[in-house]
Amino acid sequence: MEIIKNNKIIVRKEDASKKVFKGVSLDSLAVGEKSMVAKMNYVKGNFASTHQHPHEQCGYVISGEYRLNMEMPEENIEVLLHAGDSYAIPGNTPHSFEVMESGEVVDVFTPPRKDYL
């Protein structure tokens, strides 16, 4: 089976698009029509102040420790996330993220975030 590189059907580790966005190193991995996968490479002390975006965001913690805050209509949620934990943030939901211990998180955004490409 041929790997299509230009259309990014398969993205090898060495071909991932690397970027620094608001002080955080990230690798844009597979980018489809309706979703994208990004690996966030966090360093202790990184944070994202309260913000929101139209993208639904689902994440899986590979390593590290993170404090996630979400302002949901019914209640505010604050939780510590560790390796193996996952989360789903609905689009347009105010949220913030603080890195307590360095590590990696895989995030899926739908639709794709053009500012990460």
UniProtKB/TrEMBL annotation:
It comes from the Bacteria. InterPro entries: Bacilysin_H2HPP_isomerase, Cupin_2, RmlC-like_jellyroll, RmlC_Cupin_sf. CDD domains: cupin_KdgF (cd02238). It holds the Pfam family Cupin_2. Residues 40-104 form the Cupin type-2 domain. This is Cupin 2 conserved barrel domain protein.
